[in-house]
Amino acid sequence: MNNKFIRIYEDIAADIRTGKIEAGTLLPSELDLSEQYQTSRETIRKALKMLYEEGYIQKIQGKGSIVLDIRKIDFPISGLVSFKELAQKMGHRAKTYVNVFEDREVDHNLFKQIGFALNENVWEIVRVRHVDGEHVILDKDYISQKLVPGLSKEICNNSIYEYIEGELGLAISFAKKEILVEEPTEEDRKWLDLDGFHNVVVVRSQVYLEDASPFQYTESRHRPDKFKFVDFARRR
Fold it and tell me: What percentage of the chain exceeds 70 in pLDDT?
């Protein structure tokens, strides 16, 4: 059947997700897979192409297809990377859902939390990141309307940074970050799949434009089993 390669893709992908096929190992050759599944090598190539596009494998010249570690996603600490840029490495395994998009004025409570000017108008955005069938990140953003006008729910569902840099022509420069481990809040339990988890990893960031204007406060709340934070350090 024409869709046999999809069934082969789903079979191998499931084995990678469950750890039956371990990260770092090579998949059998196209010939071996064609014999295993009793199909043509062309069908196997289509299945392998899907696995590559969805971020399950990496093709290495002269060696074959190596299985990638999909259980955790490298999340750079020192870099400023949008979730869309990370998700592009995962194909269709990652999705974003915008749960809240509201116009809000900074009151005294919010002023203490996010550091924007009192009575300043901000966009309040709550997004859930869905990876491999589970809700694993809760992103809460407050963005200055003065510096980032014209934001919409559709833009938030795609990429805020892509809009800021591409449409508004602004340069995102640097961020101050803190990373903590906290007990889940009611909001975490409402939006994330946290059965069996008693902690979340929280990354709070104040992000600045090139002229050192703070335009974004972000609180990114991660289920701890899915994400690892990476950095490069050098002794000076």
Answer: 92
